[in-house]
Amino acid sequence: MATPAEKLAESLAELQKLQNDRGIAIIKADDLSRTHKERLTDNGFIFEVIKGWYISRYPDEKEGDTTSWYVSFWNFIASYIDSRFDKEWCLSPEQSLSLHSGNTTVPKQLLIRSPKASNNRINLTHGCSVFDSKVEIPSVNDRIEIGGVQAYSLISGLIAVSTDFFIRHPIDARTCLAMVKDASQILSILLEG
Predict the structure, then answer these.
(1) How far apart are CA 130 and CA 108, in angstroms?
(2) Residue ranges of domains in the chain
(3) How many angstroms separate the Cα of 83 from the Cα of each of 17, 48, 53, 180?
(4) Cross-strand bridge partners of residue 27
(5) What is the pLDDT of residues 69-114, one digit of tens each?
(6) Which phi and psi angles does 182 have, rounded to 5°?
(7) Taking the CA atoms of the chain, what radius of gyration do you get in angstroms?
(8) Fewest CB atoms within 10 A around its CB: which of 2, 98, 114, 115?
(9) Could you write out the DSSP letters of every residue in 174-192?
(10) CA dist., res. 136 & res. 80, Å (int)
């Protein structure tokens, strides 16, 4: 009969397979058996973000420590939202431009757009949430993938963003404007309507 340490080692081997396949382990309930999930959760190697979705963490993290969450946030969002909407979603123009500018700060509420959405707020861990809006998204040509996250392209984001973004996030806005190599890129789209 296997010892508890051998059973935990077996569960850790399953977790390692997921980490090797995906880089960082964002675990959907179906990815591991119930037994492995319970062992890994009880020993602090994974924790549940929302029902049926887990992320890996160091077992010596204290309760309430946010390090694993903030490191995994964007990978978690990409996996979770892709599982719900396939690739038919994108961030709001404001949050898209923040990513374009290199600002990967985790927002308290992430705004997702998708024609498949249900205008629903999903509470995550550590006071974060996702709000999915049932809104049309830009065409494939006007979207870009940034680290697995669907976002407005730089030009379409600058056109779609509200003026409030330039006031509330001046550094992100200036960074994005500086990335535009030729004003005709924006002008041609604006002239089309």
Answers:
(1) 8
(2) 4-56, 85-191
(3) 20, 17, 11, 33
(4) 54
(5) 998 899 999 999 999 999 899 999 999 999 999 999 999 999 999 9
(6) -140, 125
(7) 20
(8) 2
(9) HHHHHH-S-THHHHHHHHT
(10) 20
Report the distance separating Cα 35 and Cα 8, nearest Å.
10
> Which amino acid, one-letter code, is at 160?
A
Question: Which residues have CB under 8 Å from 84's CB, separation 6+?
Answer: 114, 116, 132
> Please, what's the b/e burial string for 39-50 (b: 16 or more CB within 10 A of its CB; e: otherwise)?
bbeeeebbbebe
Strand 120-123 and strand 109-114: pairing? unpaired
Residues 6+ apart with CB under 8 A from 88: 114, 115, 116, 137
Rounded Cα gap, residues 73 and 70, in angstroms: 5
Q: Could you tell me how many helices (H) and strands (E) the chain has, helices first?
A: 8, 9
Distance CA 78, CA 167 (A): 28
DSSP codes joined into one string, 142-183: GEEEETTEEEE-HHHHHHHS-HHHHHH-HHHHHHHHHH-S-T
pLDDT digits (tens, 9 = 90+) for 114-154: 999 999 999 999 999 999 999 999 999 899 999 889 999 99
**Predicted structure pTM score:** 0.86
